[in-house]
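Review form for a predicted model. The reviewer records the input and the model, then writes brief findings.
Reviewer: anonymous (R2)
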Amino acid sequence: MISNDETAAQKLRLALDLYESGVDMMRQTLRRRFPDLDDKSIEELLIERLLARDCAPHGDAAGVPGSPERFGSIDR
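Model under review:
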């Protein structure tokens, strides 16, 4: 019998796998749209697109928008 923790872990793994698949598809789309860009430029464009949230520019939560810098620097 599968416990609730195991079920939750399976769901999380599935969600993370789906996210990775979506990122891979976005990367391939960028390669098709911009065939002259090198790998580094594609990755920079991918990160820019992942961070841009046109549908929710301040996030999905209620409250006052904050700055991403409050979490510290992110090495890329």
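Findings: Residues 66 and 72 are 13 Å apart (CA to CA).
Further findings: The two ends are 42 Å apart (CA to CA).
Recommendation: see findings above.
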